[in-house]
Amino acid sequence: MTKNNVIDLFSGAGGLSQGFKQAGYNILMGVDFDDAALRTYGHNLKDSIALKADLFDEETAIKEIEENLNGNTVDVVIAGPPCQGFSLTGSRDINDSRNKLYVAVVHAVKHFQPKAFLIENVPGMATLYKGKVKEQIINTFEDMGYNVSVTDKPLLAADYGVPQMRKRMFFVGFRKDLGYDYFTFPEPTLTPEDYIGTADAISDLPSLVDDMGEENIPYFTAAQSDYQKLMRKNSSTIHNHIGTKHTDEVKWVISQVPEGGNHKDLPEGVGTSRKFNEAWTRYHSQKPSKTIDTGHRNHFHYKWNRVPTVRENARLQSFPDDFEFLGTKTQQNKQVGNAVPPLLAQAIGEKMAEHLKEGKVNDK
C-alpha cells in the first residue's frame, strides 16, 4: 500500500512527524528555523529531510521546500505554528494581518494542494478575539476548497495514552473536490481511571540520587509497566538522562513539597522566591504530569528531590527512548517542551489515514 507523503512545517524536534511516522505515513521533511531542533529532527527521522527555512518569508520557503521534494507529491501538510502576534482584521482575510506564521501554512496548502492538512495549537486559540481567529482560520481554508473540522474542546493528551495533562486544539481539513467529507476526531482511548501516571512512565529510569548520570547508559532495571515497555521497544540505551545540580537549599525546599503538591503546601517563609501557579510542583506518581514546558525549573520528580531529566520529560511527552535529543540541555528541554506528544499525533494521524482511504476523485 502506498504511504501518504507528509511535510511538517514548524516541525521543531519532530513530535508531530514522529507521531505520523508511527501512524504509517512517509515523512518527506520537517521545516523549521531552529538549528538545534533541526539537528535533532535529522538525527531521529533519518529518512526525512530537515530543512532550515524562514517560514516568515513564505514565497522563498515554498520555493526551498519545492526544490527539496525531489519530485514527490505532498499528500498531507502538518504544522504546529506558534500563535504570537495574532491580529484580526476580518473573519475571512487571514492575509491582511500580522498572522505571518499561519500565512505560511495557508501558502503551503494553497501551493501544494494536499489531500489534507492538520494545524495544532494551544487551547487559547479557540477563544482568541472571542473566537474570531478560529473562525478566520476555518473560513480561510474553507474558501480554499477544504472541509475544515476543529476540535470542539481541546484534546487532552492523557486521553490518548500520554502520561501528561496537556491540552491542544487541532484544525483538520480535507479537500472537497476529492470527495472528502468533514473529519471526525478520534475518540479517547483511556478514561480518567486508566490514565498513565508518572511512576508508570519513568520509574524504571535511574534515580540519579548519588550522581548526575551520563549519556547512553544501559537499562539497569526491567520495564515495570506496559507504557515503559512501549517506550523501550526499539532501544537498548538510555539517552538524555542527565541530572541537574541543585543547591542544598533548593533540595531542602523540594523535600518539603508533598507528592502532587506545589508552593502552596510549603511552610510559611519557605520557597518564597517562586510563588506563581506552577512553582515548586511535585509530580504525583499515580497521575499524569502537568503540561511539560520549555524550561525545567518548576516541576519536580514525584520521589526524588530534583527536576526531571530531559529523558524523563520526553517519556512524559511519549517520545520513544530511541529518540535522542541533541544540543545543550537548555535546547533539549525547549525541544521537548515545544513538541506535540507523538502518541497524540499518532492517534489523529491514524484516524486521518482512515479518512484518506474514504475519499474519491470526482468525475467532473
UniProtKB/TrEMBL annotation:
Enzyme class name: transferase
Keywords recorded for this protein, A-Z: Methyltransferase, Restriction system, S-adenosyl-L-methionine, Transferase
Highest taxon, organism lineage: Bacteria
Active site: C83
Catalytic activity: a 2'-deoxycytidine in DNA + S-adenosyl-L-methionine = a 5-methyl-2'-deoxycytidine in DNA + S-adenosyl-L-homocysteine + H(+)
PROSITE patterns: C5_MTASE_1, C5_MTASE_2, SAM_MT_C5
The enzyme's E.C. designation: 2.1.1.37
Matches recorded under Pfam families: DNA_methylase
GO biological process annotation, one example: DNA restriction-modification system
SUPFAM superfamilies membership: S-adenosyl-L-methionine-dependent methyltransferases
InterPro entries attached to this UniProt entry: C5-Methyltransferase, C5_DNA_meth_AS, C5_MeTfrase, C5_meth_CS, SAM-dependent_MTases_sf
GO molecular function: DNA (cytosine-5-)-methyltransferase activity; DNA binding
PANTHER family (UniProt xref): CYTOSINE-SPECIFIC METHYLTRANSFERASE (PTHR10629), DNA (CYTOSINE-5)-METHYLTRANSFERASE 1 (PTHR10629:SF52)
Sequence similarity: Belongs to the class I-like SAM-binding methyltransferase superfamily. C5-methyltransferase family.
Protein name stated in the entry: Cytosine-specific methyltransferase
